[in-house]
Amino acid sequence: MNLKSWIKDRTGSPQATLPQPIGGRGRAAATFAAGITFENVERRYGDHQALAGFTLDIAPSEVVCLLGPSGCGKTTLLRIASGIEKPSAGRVLINGAEVAGPARFVPPEQRSVGLMFQDFALFPHLTILDNVAFGLKSLPKADAAREALALLSRVGLAHLAANYPHTLSGGQQQRVALARAIVPRPSVMLMDEPFSGLDVQLRDAMQEETLSLLRETRATSLIVTHHPEEAMRLGDRIAIMSHGRLIQLGTAEDLYHHPAELFVARLFSEINEVRLRVKDQRIDTPFGPIAAPGLRDGDTAILCLRERAMMVWPDGAEPPPARTHTGKVLPGRVLHVRFLGDVGLVEVAVQGFDEPLKVRTPEPDGLKRGDNVAVEIDPARALVFPG
Ligand code: ATP
């Protein structure tokens, strides 16, 4: 059963906030930060293992983004965190107390968890104010309305309180959904691709607004996204998931500079991948030797050259000032130049490489197909993975 139908079964409407935080009250007096821990969580559907021993500890008030390919188990993890689904094995703890595990299962309405979906799921027949107040049912009506209005005012929509959802733009609806999810002051906010329905410009603005609201309320947050840049922007840390497991956890900088796997490196930058044979714990590349620690003689290694960590300039011309001077300069010939706005994408046949290399450069001026060029890499930014 999916999240929405589960909530619909219990409330008669596909609303996005579980209405009763821990303690059975409509809302906590204030959000108190709660850590959430997944311990070796497994979820099997028949033979298929959607979660295969997932472990993650999220600190109180921390924002963690969950990033991974389609089908890797992200939504399943949110469902288990919210209590909509039970793990097949392992435990979930909120603030150190087991909420799902072999010994105990705390129902969703007692977990102080807020949920928000990508399609906002507002009630079409309720006004904006009533949509937001819906999660405060156990408060006296006037108090609920006052709280709801305060939050609508916080997201800049108090003037639309009497309107119905269909009269609002996508960005406004997203703000209402956010206000509704946060008004009960949940300790933990679970968000499933909350910005994917918005266009790029609106998405930027809403990301900032959401983040500032999460910070104000100090809600511990787990946000599912498909977009690495969104994860870098929103997350204090990013959890990379693949095949139901946590592959790597770290800050944006950690993951960008020290990706644990080729799959992680590919997520965070555009790279050229070149297969080479390992000898003496290094690979001999046309740009010079590069260390391949941990790899054995004869192994295949994949050399990753970030497109933005390479330099290209016209043969015989003055090199760009940002040149590293640490690598060997190789001759090449330009095959294509594409204008991509802030950078140019230059495809170059480089001496010693079987396949052309792509270089993203802020200074493609004057380069054109057929030009002879000089190419350099920054060896310190090259990555090597097992092939
Ligand atoms: P997406 O990014 O596409 O939303 P996801 O990472 O959120 O994907 P999940 O929805 O968690 O992935 O699904 C993980 C795996 O479990 C998928 O292979 C999916 O088909 C399977 N799965 C999820 N729910 C069920 C179910 N109720 N019955 C059977 N298989 C399921």
Q: How would you describe what is shown here?
A:
The chain has helices spanning 3-11, 74-82, 128-133, 141-154, 170-182, 200-217, 228-234, 252-257, 262-268; strands spanning 36-45, 48-58, 63-67, 89-94, 97-100, 113-116, 188-192, 220-225, 237-242, 245-250, 271-279, 282-285, 288-291, 300-306, 310-314, 330-339, 344-350, 357-361, 372-377, 383-386. The chain has 387 residues and is an alpha+beta fold. It has a domain at 307-378: Nucleic acid-binding proteins (OB fold (Dihydrolipoamide Acetyltransferase, E2P), Beta Barrel), CATH 2.40.50. Strands 6-7-8-3-9-10 form a six-stranded mixed beta sheet, sandwiched between helices. Strands 13-12-11-14-20 form a five-stranded antiparallel beta sheet. Strands 15-19-16-17-18 form a five-stranded antiparallel beta sheet, with no helix packed on it. A hairpin with a 2-residue loop joins β1 (36-45) and β2. α5 (170-182) packs parallel to α6 (200-217). Mean pLDDT is 87; it is low at 1-30. Adenosine-5'-triphosphate binds next to β2 and α2.
Question: Which secondary structure elements does this structure contain, and how are they paired or packed?
Answer:
Blueprint: H1 3-11, E1 36-45, E2 48-58, E3 63-67, H2 74-82, E4 89-94, E5 97-100, E6 113-116, H3 128-133, H4 141-154, H5 170-182, E7 188-192, H6 200-217, E8 220-225, H7 228-234, E9 237-242, E10 245-250, H8 252-257, H9 262-268, E11 271-279, E12 282-285, E13 288-291, E14 300-306, E15 310-314, E16 330-339, E17 344-350, E18 357-361, E19 372-377, E20 383-386
Helix pairs in contact: 5-6
Bound molecules: adenosine-5'-triphosphate.
